[in-house]
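Lab notebook page, bench 4
Experiment: in silico fold of construct C2
Operator: M.H.
Input chain length: 258 residues
Purpose: comparison with the prior construct
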Amino acid sequence: MQVETFSTLQEASGAVHDRAQFLAGGTILMRAVTYGDQSFDTIVRAQQVDRSIGSDAGGLRIGAGATMADVLASRDVDFLHPVARAIGGPQVRNMGTVGGNIFARNPYGDFAVALLALDAQAVMADGRTMPLGDLLATRERPGGLVQAVTIARPESGTFRFRKVSRVKPKGVSVMSIAAHLKRGDPRVVFGNMAPTPTRSVGAERALANGTDAGAIAAACSACLEGLAPADDPLATEWYRREVAPVHLKRLLEEGARY
């Protein structure tokens, strides 16, 4: 295993390939190294990463190098505190980054679920900007590293998040759900219900005109449209399909409650 260090993220971006993995917080990558993962032989790192969190033109900007602890310390993104708090324990939150979470495979990646529900834009190291949904669809070959994400601050009470896990408080997700309930253009996203965080188009269609009891019932009935859960050591496909409508109903009726 060799380590290549670059001054900037843009320089490091050019060195990442199938056998070279970028080191963000290391909570997943270094575990792979410890257990002898043979799929890569080079670690790429950058001395300068963006950990800033604050207002940006038209919204909020979160540096990809910001940790979950950084998110929890920022009042600018207080609506994301329940999401960051649900990720791992203190050690993981001190190291795990926003950028790393975007590329984390199931059953991780809860923060990416929330960002997708908020229509986040990914700012790449070379300055390009692309919708996070497009990046997630091609994240095996992203064509660069993420420098930051930008989001619009949601109106009070419109953003909700729920994590379903077997072990509390630090267990990984059986599934996670994030909803941004903008009237006329809602977003409902499930994690660990497809290979990557995925929008529930059926639930979004049902909630387009509001969140009354009838709309919630319709959303729960249609929430599996577009999803493709799998069997894994945490749960079966059947179980996930059975409980997804139950947890979506609780999220929509109760808000960000665990």
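Observations: Residues 159-254 form a domain with the Enolase-like; domain 1 fold (CATH 3.30.390.50). The chain has eleven helices and twelve strands.
Next step: discuss at group meeting.
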